[in-house]
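Dear colleague,

Following up on yesterday's call, I've attached the two folding results inline so they're easy to grep. Please treat them as preliminary; we haven't cross-checked anything against experimental data yet. The first protein's sequence and structure tokens come first.
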Amino acid sequence: MVHPPDGFFQQAKKASTEFLPLLLWVDFRIAPDELGRYYLFTTGMDAFGKREIEVLPSHHPPQIVIERAFDIAHYVLASDVKLGEGETVGTSHDERIPIKVGTSMAQRDIEVLSLELPDELK
């Protein structure tokens, strides 16, 4: 990835254990599908020994999809956890986003954490 110098330095200056500069380390790629839903996949998590994250097509606005993926990636890296099949994750105690481990939509030769965002996020 290429970053504008000003944005790179701003992100780097803010870096701490509470605020990892994920946007410098991980690429969050989002795109619409033919039904107007948005799906997302990351590249760069594998550099940290973690599975890439993919969000299955969702009716949520792109910003929400990106925020959830960012928050989950941050949690995985900051807490050094290994999430697996059948577990849930969320941004609150009430939110339960199920995790599946499966073949990537974007890179067929890798296993990823596949997330399906519920219709209602808490």
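Below is the second protein, in the same order (sequence, then structure):
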Amino acid sequence: MALLLWIPFSVAVFAFLKPSHRAVAFLLVAAALFLPELEFFDIKLLPNMNKKTVACAWVFIPALFWCSGRLKRASLGAVPWMLFALMVVVDIGRAVTNQDPLVLGHNTVIAPILLHTALTFIMEDFLLVFVPFFLGAALFSERESLRDLMKTFVLGGLAYLPLVVLELKLSPQLHAWVYGYHQHSWLQVLRDGAYRPMVFMHHGLACALFMATSALLAFGLARARDKLRGFGLYPIAAALAIVLALSHSLGSLVFLVALVPVVLLLPPRMQLRVAVLLAALVMLYPMLRAYDLFPTKMLVNWARSISEDRAGSIAFRFFNEDQALKHAFERPIFGWGGFDRIFVYNKQTGEDISTFDGAWLITYCASGVLGFVARFGLLTYPVWRAYRRIKRVPNRADQTLIACVGLTTAMVSVDLLPNGMFTYFPHLLAGVLLGATRELSRRESAPLPTRASAPAPRARSMRPPVAARAQGVRG
């Protein structure tokens, strides 16, 4: 019912909330925060119509009518369009190269991927990758729209504050109270003897990452001396950070503790240099893991100094990554297609012996190295682009906001190494970063308007005419 009612609700929001880019920001954030997890409509040839696909579809369709002018004028540049084209090629390749069944043990058969499934792959990537990226670049490229988007995230964080505190006290129950079922295993709820809030998101990690994102954007707005409905943003950002610290999610807390000083103390170009380093880590991570160059043992020992539970969790992730990478290297170009084919099985019994956590690993196994380059290239290219062009942005406050969005984009991209792609926010933020960088950096080099036929002005006397002086009129 909630997914169905979201369709007329989206149209109503566009009709009443002006300007229309605020409707886009509100719908994308609100859908991720409040629509139900796990449930979906299974329609043949279409991707599963769940909270993410419904939200993206029913923000894009109304936007075609209410924002048509700005969408037509949108300019992404050559590289994003090349990466989108590569994504389509990969989706076709995934279906073409995985039409063989996998026979495991005596009775286990993993079904082949039918050729027409390529259309499903393409539509899913269109909704979950292209739509948020394109809308972000097209509609949030100007100063006020960029601020509106960042403030929408902050307002979403404020809306979640009492809900997170409630679940810290009572355990994650809101999803069950509203929708009638728990959205995740109860084993994932407890951490260090306390509850990890999920509210209406798929996992406690997703909730914590959203709170970290909201807090970091709030600190960026505060440094740019912006306000939220007349209220200063430093206390709001601090409140979001405190609630995150209580949420028992170490990864997101480490991100925030490390990046807040960068936002508050470093100049914008230095902030984006840090973001570029994080983006480079994301793109190089598969190679570092493949050649055993990533410091896995050091990270496990560091986690053990905090708690044995966290050390065991990280060690388990790295062990599964090693197994999955060996499986992925058997089909490195287009991957194993998706569905159950990406997992690692015991060849004698047919038992699934793998656990996939990181979005990068799922992408790499499902669509190969080309799919990884396409998806994660769209996340990291805008960061590099912003670093190259930040000096061309003439307004210092604009530089501050762009740098904050760049750091936030890099943060959520790095989070995709250990964790899943819980929402469409990473590609939305990447698109916003690209659009704002391109638009706000053009203003420095834009020529001043001139009139070729206008005559040169004549010098005028500072004294008023005699008639005017006689009447007592001042010159």
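For the second protein, one point worth flagging: Residues 134 and 449 are 30 Å apart (CA to CA).

Best wishes,
A.L.
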